[in-house]
Every structure is written in C-alpha cells, then in structure tokens.
Amino acid sequence: MKHSRTAMWVSTGVVVVTSAVALVLLLVPGVTDKPEQLDAGEIDLAADVRQFAEGMSAESGYSKPSPAERAAIGEGVRRVLDGEPLDARKAMASVGYTVSKRVDTGTKRSFYEVSDSTDRPRGWGRILIDTAATVHLGIEVPHPKADLGSEQLGIALFQRVPGSVLVIAGAHRRAAPYRQADMAHTNESVFETVHELLVQRKVPVMQLHGFRNESAPDSDIVLSAGPELGSPYVERIAQGLKAAGLSVCLSWVTGCKGLEATTNVQAKWVAEHGGDFAHIEVSQDTRFTAEASGRVVSALAQQVAGR
Question: Based on the number of CB atoms within 10 Å of its own CB, is 236 exposed (0-12), middle (13-18) or buried (19 or more)?
C-alpha cells in the first residue's frame, strides 16, 4: 500500500512537471508550434508611390549612409530574398530600417517592403519584393520626380511581373550636393548595395529613366547596356519594344548622345562583374500618355515572361 502511494505521487508529479513545462513553452516568445509571421496590410501601391515621389524636395531630404548602414540594409534585403523576413527585420533594426508585408489593392498580390522606420526618413529609398518564390527581375527607379513619371512606370512593371524586386530612390536626385543623392552616379548608397546584391544573384535588371522630348525628338525609347552600349539582353528588349510599335534609339547602332548611360554606376558595375542590365530612357510624351506607357510596360513584361 505504501508502495502504491509512492507510485501515485511520482505519477502526479510527472503530470504537474509536464504541464508546467508545456505552460512555459507557450509563454516563451518564439517557442510555439506556429511560426511568427508578418501581418499583411493593404495598400494602393500606385497611389502611395505617387504621393511618395511628389513629396520629394530638390533641395533637401538626403543624408549619406555609412558603410555599416549600407551593409546592414543589404543583409536585410538578402534575408528577405531568402525567405527570412523576420530575421531581416532584426538585421536592420539597429540602423532604423524595417520590413513590412503588404497587399497591393490593384493586383491583390502580396509583397515585402524594406523601408526607413525613423521619424525623419533619410532618403535611402524603398525596396519592394514580390513574395513569389523566385526572383525574375530587378526594376530600378533612380530618379523619381526628377524623371517625372518614371516611378509610375516602375510600379506598373512591378505589378505586371510576379517575382520582381522594385528599388525606388528615396530622394530627388538634387537633394544633396556633389551628386550624393543621384543614385545613378554614386556607389555609396543603399540603392547601389541592393543593385549589386541582385546582380550577384543573377537577376537581370531594368533601370527606368525619363528624357525630355527634345533630347531625342525622333525616339520614344533610348536603350543602352551602359559603357559597352549593346548586349544580347538589351537587343532582345529592343526587339520587343519595336514590335510594340515604339521608336527605339539603339545606342550601340546609331548613338544617342547624352542618354547612353556610359557614366551610370550601376551599368559600370555590371560591365565589370557580369550580368544583364538595361538602361531604358522613356520620352516625356510616352511617359505621360497612358496608351504609350502601357505599351512600354507590356513589352518589357513580355520580355521577362519569354526569358
């Protein structure tokens, strides 16, 4: 009888201890069967980016990031691309950047946004990453507002291409002296850090710009690969744009003075390290005409689909 009571106490003790351990596991953050996730909030992406660009000043709004800040944000973007958004948030917390999950009301597609979380944004830009498993395209908008409408082309292309990454500069190109805020002409930026990361991962990049009609009056589009002017990648893009009925100036054939991207730092990096890069200048009339800009976006999206 005494032995039976001892066994009962031991059994009861095991139950109590087991229950206590289970309770502790439930209370300890991160120790659950259900993995922690980011909540997705809805956003009208086209309207939001339009407002974002409209708020940029040509006189202020940019501070140069340090190498450590650039590295931390680059690590955060890498982790998002690897499917680790929560780890990305931790990697960037010390430099005031974060990652949020959004749903675009225009397409109903979800994406991650890497952006500044401080009270005074520093003009380092926004990175939008479609949640599709494989990244097919990098889209870069280095001169929002300055190249008016280029940001809307970028959004439209992002919406058309699942598995794309959109990198939008966070300040007007003249927001700081010595071209510090001109993302196409500085390699000490978050923009450049993300560019290099995408190219290292073998992601083709389309960089969108805008030009005044008088700069190339006979062309809707000016196309270049950068310092080398031509490449098989830009030649394929040119074919698609021409098939869409657009007039395209081919830098490697006729030359397109002042619009050839020979000093573009992202193009230079690709020329030195390898990869696919297209510098795409779009005329003012084409950007501001819905039908024409729609043809540009469709042609570029079809090129990605036919890769």
Answer: middle
pLDDT in tens, 178-212: 999 999 999 999 999 999 999 999 999 999 999 99
Using an 8 Å Cβ cutoff, are 282 and 220 in contact? Answer: yes
pLDDT tens per residue across span 39-48: 779 999 999 9
Residue 113 identity (one-letter amino acid)? E
Mean pLDDT of 120-126: 96
Cα–Cα nearest to 173, from 228, 210, 130, 215? 210
Instruction: Kindly state which CATH superfamily the domain 204-307 is placed in.
Output: Zn-dependent exopeptidases (3.40.630.40)
Contact 203, 135 (CB under 8 A): yes
Q: Residues 263, 209: contact at Cβ < 8 Å?
A: no
Q: Where are the domains of the chain?
A: 33-201, 204-307
